[in-house]
Specification:
The complex is a heterodimer of chains A (114) and B (112).
Chain A: E1 4-7, E2 10-14, E3 19-25, E4 33-38, E5 45-50, E6 56-59, E7 62-67, E8 72-77, E9 86-93, E10 102-104, E11 108-113
Parallel strand pairs in A: 2-11
Antiparallel strand pairs in A: 1-3, 3-8, 4-5, 4-9, 6-7, 7-8, 9-10, 9-11
Chain B: E1 4-7, E2 10-13, E3 19-25, E4 31-37, E5 43-51, E6 54-57, E7 64-66, E8 76-78, E9 87-94, E10 102-103, E11 107-111
Parallel strand pairs in B: 2-11
Antiparallel strand pairs in B: 1-3, 3-8, 4-5, 4-9, 5-6, 7-8, 9-10, 9-11
Classes of the chains: A mainly beta (114), B mainly beta (112).
């Protein structure tokens, strides 16, 4: 049972463009939504995260938009750079819950062309 | 401060063989996790631990075992390797719960 659905699987963007990756979740108990960035041959690293009490969080060129009623959240990368080329994973979890597991989306491979 | 280290980086096993994937963290984190990453499937949680001596199953625990005798170490044991266990395995740790998790570099395992 896939609790977090991520799209698209792959994305190609020109340098300077906007990259948008979408995720949808099923479990309304989720209350922590991080995005992880993974470069080839490396482990994922936390990029940015949001709680459902806000609709948007911005850190530099990276923004999470969150729609609680639609159970969707998205990552926007402004002014995309070739160095942003990586695989991005959305995730969801319940903070303070009995289960400490994080449910990950399937990942989006982003390629930013120079 | 090395963060999360994993050994080995690569391993090829024959069906039925056993092995232990090692994971060590030096950040004094209470929580540690083992994930497997299959192409197009994201990361699936195998086992996790909330402290020394305490472990619990994740989403896909079958075929694996873990132990946590110290805060620093969280080894993952495969007893009878099967081709379905061919994957990249990541160990992660966090200070508290599913907040920011720090991942190791991964172990690529092939079972033939």
């Amino acid at each position: 049972q896939q609790q977090v659905k991520q799209s698209p699987q792959s994305l190609i963007v020109q340098k300077g463009g906007i990259s948008i990756i979408n995720c949808a979740y099923e479990n309304t108990a989720f209350d922590y939504f991080p995005w992880y960035q993974q470069f080839p041959g490396k482990g994922p690293a936390l990029l940015i995260a949001i709680r459902p009490d806000v609709s948007e969080k911005k850190e530099g060129r990276f923004t999470i938009s969150f729609n609680k009623s639609a159970k969707q959240f998205s990552l926007h990368i402004m002014d995309s750079q070739p160095g942003d080329s990586a695989t991005y994973f959305c995730a969801a979890s319940i903070l303070g819950g009995y289960n400490n597991d994080m449910r990950f989306g399937a990942g989006t491979r982003l390629t930013v062309k120079p | 401060n090395a963060g999360v280290t994993q050994t080995p980086k690569f391993r090829i096993l024959k069906i039925g063989q056993s092995m232990t994937l090692q994971c060590t963290q030096d950040m004094n984190h209470n929580y540690m996790y083992w994930y497997r990453q299959d192409p197009g499937m994201g990361l699936k949680l195998i086992y996790y631990s909330v402290g020394a001596g305490i472990t619990d199953k994740g989403e896909v625990p079958n075929g694996y075992n873990v132990s946590r005798s110290t805060t620093e170490d969280f080894p993952l044991r495969l007893e009878l390797a099967a081709p379905s266990q061919t994957s990249v395995y990541f160990c992660a740790s966090s200070y508290a719960g599913p907040y920011e998790q720090y991942f190791g570099p991964g172990t690529r395992l092939t079972v033939t």
